[in-house]
């Protein structure tokens, strides 16, 4: 039986004082792969930021991985983010340390202490994204696609209930985008729920899945051929 991972009811999304999206009603169930599309400036990023606590939910109701977005306190945000895996367009890897130490930094920051368990977890997530042999390289020694694979591995470290990927292929060429998308698909098939914002319609056609669209201040589901 699938459980509801994300639900918004009559929600309004604000960027500072500006209303970006209104009357948002949606549900995402565990195990789903959901695309979020929309033109630049349509509210995709503000929507995503609201989900991981960067922008407060001021109006309406919302819950994500058992956290109430309307009542979310600042001190609870780190705990919310431990149950989410967040993948950004620009990788956000630390340039002064190798890949293993990038991942080790995250584990230590989220309370891991056992060295053997940390090393085993790092090996496991790098294996899942096809980067097991690259742990001793520094970010600048990797291609964009490889860096994004590492960013996905980093998002998997704390076994998130939901992965939020904000334009994860935005800085990649078409072939590399497909490779990264296949990694995300494999992770989804293994049981992870993924919400991915993208403006790459070719990817949506190649990997059809449930699609939400931000347009005209609303969020609505679109049928594939209408994209």
Automatic annotation (TrEMBL):
* Matches recorded under SUPFAM superfamilies: P-loop containing nucleoside triphosphate hydrolases
Coiled-coil annotated residue ranges, if any: none
- Domain of life, per lineage: Bacteria
Q: Which UniProt keywords apply?
A: ATP-binding, Nucleotide-binding
Its Gene Ontology molecular function terms? Answer: ATP binding; ATP hydrolysis activity; transmembrane transporter activity
Transferase keyword on record: no
User: Looking at the keywords, is Nucleotide-binding present?
Assistant: yes
A GO cellular component annotation in the UniProt record:
plasma membrane
Q: Where is the ABC transporter domain?
A: 6-226
Spans traversing the lipid bilayer: none
Similarity remark: Belongs to the ABC transporter superfamily.
Tell me, in a sentence or two, what this protein's role is: Part of the ABC transporter FtsEX involved in cellular division. Important for assembly or stability of the septal ring.
Name this protein carries in UniProt: Cell division ATP-binding protein FtsE
Species annotation = Aggregatimonas sangjinii
């Amino acid at each position: 039986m699938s459980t509801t991972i994300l639900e918004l009811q009559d929600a309004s999304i604000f960027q500072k004082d500006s209303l970006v999206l209104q009357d948002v009603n949606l549900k995402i169930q565990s195990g789903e792969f959901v695309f979020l599309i929309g033109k630049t400036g349509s509210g995709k990023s503000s929507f995503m930021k609201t989900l991981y606590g960067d922008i407060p939910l001021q109006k309406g109701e919302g819950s994500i991985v058992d956290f109430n977005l309307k009542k979310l306190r600042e001190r609870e945000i780190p705990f919310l983010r431990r149950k989410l895996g967040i993948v950004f367009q620009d990788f956000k890897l630390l340039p002064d340390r190798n890949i293993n130490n990038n991942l080790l930094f995250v584990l230590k920051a989220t309370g891991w202490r056992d060295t053997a368990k940390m090393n085993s977890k790092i090996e496991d997530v790098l294996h899942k994204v096809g980067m097991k042999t690259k742990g001793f390289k520094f970010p600048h020694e990797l291609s964009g696609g490889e860096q994004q694979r590492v960013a996905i591995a980093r998002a998997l470290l704390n076994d998130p209930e939901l992965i939020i990927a904000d334009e994860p292929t935005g800085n990649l060429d078409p072939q590399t985008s497909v490779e990264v998308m296949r990694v995300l698909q494999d992770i989804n098939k293994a049981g992870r729920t993924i919400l991915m914002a993208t403006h790459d319609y070719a990817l949506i056609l190649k990997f059809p899945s449930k699609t939400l669209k931000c347009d005209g201040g609303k969020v609505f589901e679109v049928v594939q051929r209408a994209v």
